[in-house]
């Protein structure tokens, strides 16, 4: 009888733990989706940035498994680009 109670308690605790993890994961996904939606709605595809390329300031970009050299970029409000980059290849 004690063994059955112990097994039932373990199963119940496992179910509660699993359900809690699923709720937390769902909440995290919702939060990330909200951040992405806000970021997209800010520009809405509008060209709201301009930038300068700094030839004397190198940076690196990871493409697949390869690191590619680039040049540092500075952004400011403008009307040429939809996103602000950190490094240009």
Can you describe what's shown?
The protein is of the alpha+beta class and 89 residues long. It has two domains: 1-43; 49-88, no CATH class. Helices cover 47% and strands 33% of the residues. It has one helix at residues 2-43; strands at residues 49-63, 66-77, 87-88. It has a three-stranded antiparallel β-sheet with strand order 1-2-3, with no helix packed on it. A hairpin with a 2-residue loop joins strand 1 (49-63) and strand 2 (66-77). The chain is elongated. The mean pLDDT is 75.
What count of structural domains? 2
Main pleated-sheet profile: 3 strands, antiparallel
The low-pLDDT segments are none
Shape: elongated
Give, in order, the helices and strands.
HEEE
Radius of gyration: 24 Å
How many individual helices?
1
Q: Record the strand order, biggest sheet.
A: 1-2-3
Outline of the structure:
With 89 residues, this protein is an alpha+beta fold. It contains one helix and three strands.
Outline the secondary-structure elements:
Blueprint: H1 2-43, E1 49-63, E2 66-77, E3 87-88
Antiparallel strand pairs: 1-2, 2-3
Provide keyphrases for this structure.
89 residues, alpha+beta, 2 domains, three-stranded antiparallel sheet, 1 helix, 47% helix, elongated
